[in-house]
Design a protein that fits this description.
This protein is mainly beta. It has two helices and twelve strands.
Length: 195
């Protein structure tokens, strides 16, 4: 539930061509989510941790189409196939994008191009708004409206403290000593399924 919301890869048609870390803030009607992100062209790590180390970490492996959700306080993780678990709304191949250049700007100390972005999914869902991206494709800010049924919702995401540079490969692996949580086993156990 921590990571629920609109299309996660919304205005990210293409993966960025640079490695970087940043602080990410996402605002929706449901509230504000703050994360630390570590990104490469093929991998992404999003941390939502409290000072006590509670919270979750998501590791997206676009190279192997796997999503890991880490629970550091329990030293456990879950594994999902990105194709199956993400569903259509986060599958970039199910969306068509129109980008129109609006202006060149400085934003949070970074030179960006502002685009008007409209995206339509194959099942007719739509969102539009503005996105600000660097030359390397780093999405510094997105201000988007999207429709779900008759509901119109707004999502604002912004990166600050962007540090472009090589990221430690260990950030995108499951840490030693973590145990895999088998959701299938838990579900069949909870259902009292006979062996």
């Amino acid at each position: 539930t921590l990571f629920a919301g609109p299309p996660v890869q919304a205005a990210q048609m293409n993966r960025p061509q640079a490695e970087y870390s940043a602080d990410s803030t996402m605002q929706t009607e449901e509230g504000t989510i703050q994360q630390k992100v570590f990104v490469t062209p093929t991998k992404e790590r999003k941390e939502m941790l409290t000072g006590a180390g509670d919270g979750g970490i998501m590791i997206f492996r676009f190279d192997s189409k796997v999503l890991w959700i880490l629970m550091p306080s329990e030293k456990m993780y879950m594994e999902n196939s990105m194709g199956a678990s993400r569903g259509q709304r986060d599958d970039p191949s199910q969306w068509t994008y129109e980008d129109t250049v609006v202006a060149e700007e400085m934003l949070n100390g970074v030179r960006v191009t502002k685009y008007k972005t409209i995206a339509t999914s194959t099942d007719g869902k739509k969102y539009g708004g503005f996105s600000w991206r660097t030359r390397e494709g780093i999405s510094i800010k997105q201000d988007l409206l999207y429709k779900e049924g008759n509901d119109k919702k707004r999502m604002l995401t912004e990166l600050t403290n962007v540090q472009v540079g090589r990221q430690d490969p260990r950030l995108f692996e499951i840490p030693e000593g973590f145990t895999k949580l088998d959701m299938g086993g838990m579900m069949s156990g909870a259902m009292g399924r006979p062996d």
